[in-house]
Amino acid sequence: MNVQEKVFDIDGLKVCGRWWRGDARSTDSEPVLAVHGWLDNAASFNALGEAGLPLLALDMPGNAHSDDRPAHATYNIWDDLPVLLAVADRMGWERFNLLGHSRGAMMSMLLAASCPERVKRLICLDGLVPMAVSIEQSPKQLGDFLRDAKALSTKPGKVYPTLDELIALRQRTTGMSEAATRVLAERGAKAVAGGWLWRADQRLKGASAFKLSTAHIEAFLKALVPPVLLIVAEKGYAQFPELNELISLIPQCQLESLPGGHHFHMEDGAATIAKLIREFLAQEKS
Fold first, then answer.
1. Please, what is the angle between helix 81-90 and helix 103-114, to 10°?
2. Which of 47, 154, 209, 274 is in Cβ range 3.0-4.6 Å of 145 for a Cys bridge?
3. Where are the domains of the chain?
4. What angle separates helix 103-114 from helix 214-222, to the nearest 10 degrees?
5. pLDDT (tens digit, 9 = 90+) per residue, 85-123?
6. Burial class of residue 246, CB neighbours in 10 A (0-12, 13-18, 19+)
């Protein structure tokens, strides 16, 4: 497929990505901005791009080929929303479709609810909202963030003797197939003295400074003006007990459940997911 590496300068921060222009034989040419999950990277969307979807998949700051955020900056889920809008501006997209997986789906939901004038349609893969924290827990949450920020700012990443060992450990912790894990590792790992290191800012592993309450989350879901396609994995987000209650708050939401685990968009489910996305994007034109 026609894929191009992209590099953006966003206020001095290098943000990289992969741009699949889509299947030239298809009448569906509306671009989609894709946001990966926690500690993943743009290669998370390789299978969907290779299926012919027009996708710009980013390495979010702190991951893979993109720059880490400055020492004073944070990685709260809303910190990258201005980056997404800036990338869309660089691409000349006044309005665009937004696709997010896992943590990326949470970020995409917040952006679509906050800036409905920019987002045409929202596609969420096995994720929708962050875990709520009660207002009473806010002091502890902030304390956890401050302690983690100090500890992780100087903590080095673990170096694995071989790439295969790095892949094997990540496979065990994520439940992904070896093939899918290798796809992420080929972009997300780098050779260093003594072995291989995962390209991720250690601060991404720390607690958030603030988390939304249930009331916050409900307000965002109710504010989702763009139509939403939520595709969940039977062994993943489909098991979330409050799923139907959350969906009922969204004005326009199509729910699809598919076999597989959390990274089903990189596994056997990719072709079906690509088909569902194509059909969803085509609804506006019909």
1. 70
2. 209
3. 3-131+213-282
4. 60
5. 999 999 999 999 999 999 999 999 999 999 999 999 999
6. middle
